[in-house]
Amino acid sequence: xxxxxxxxxxxxxxxxxxxxxxxxxxxxxxxxxxxxxxxxxxxxxxxxxxxxxxxxxxxxxxxxxxxxxxxxxxxxxxxxxxxxxxxxxxxxxxxxxxxxxxxxxxxxxxxxxxxxxxxxxxxxxxxxxxxxxxxxxxxxxxxxxxxxxxxxxxxxxxxxxxxxxxxxxxxxxxxxxxxxxxxxxxxxxxxxxxxxxxxxxxxxxxxxxxxxxxxxxxxxxxxxxxxxxxxxxxxxxxxxxxxxxxxxxxxxxxxxxxxxxxxxxxxxxxxxxxxxx
Length: 277
Ligand SMILES: NC(=O)c1ccc[n+]([C@@H]2O[C@H](COP(=O)([O-])OP(=O)(O)OC[C@H]3O[C@@H](n4cnc5c(N)ncnc54)[C@H](O)[C@@H]3O)[C@@H](O)[C@H]2O)c1
What we know:
277 residues, Dihydrodipicolinate Reductase, domain 2, binds nicotinamide-adenine-dinucleotide, 2 domains, five-stranded mixed sheet
């Protein structure tokens, strides 16, 4: 248990991505600022504004690392590839939300070796990563199985066969779930780049993606995004079942993710007085 005091100067946050997560983070920061808490403030926003709108704090994505202390990447794997290293080189820390992109080991190494800013991972839509990381230090992680169940329509992708797409969209009577993928983390994040960040988070916490098996299930009755996680390790056997409400504006994302980002930011700002780390 660590006691910390809030720093005197605010942590200036830049948002890369003004979508479901970016907006959710901004709303929380602005609400805290209005309530008089200035430990974390919004200082820049860089995004493609698809609806033609903009933001009073808008800056070019190429510049965002120069106008804040930490950049929250909530724009997707491509944006992380293009802008991540530049943010770190400009001196800002980088909070990565599109964790699936880090299954590209070249990108992972590039971000780790860049600086002076430091890269951080956001726990995002799942918990238990602290226990998994501790178990990894204890001894070998033998096997992790992640079964992700989401509403079928949110899992439909171009690479699927017509039959599989039909089963996800219009399940036959009596069968309300269909397994649409089983395989490695690298393949999962390739096939579902917006939806399987949690598989990459498990692989990174375990320090080994080869022990992780991923299954993706589309359900006609699911109203939440559920992750059933089983871990066999030298330290013990663990089971987590996490059911998150989908974001109202992006059903492929879990609503909690924006809250996880803000928690990470408050931790970086040193304003969590008694925090789990
Ligand atoms: N770690 C987790 O558990 C977790 C959970 C949910 C979502 N995610 C990931 O977080 C990311 C954001 O999710 P979201 O739901 O907010 O997505 P979203 O589609 O609602 O928003 C993405 C935003 O980024 C912008 N954008 C895309 N490419 C850009 C670029 N190159 N430069 C600037 N802006 C760009 C888009 O215009 C949009 O405003 C996704 O990659 C998603 O997979 C991670």
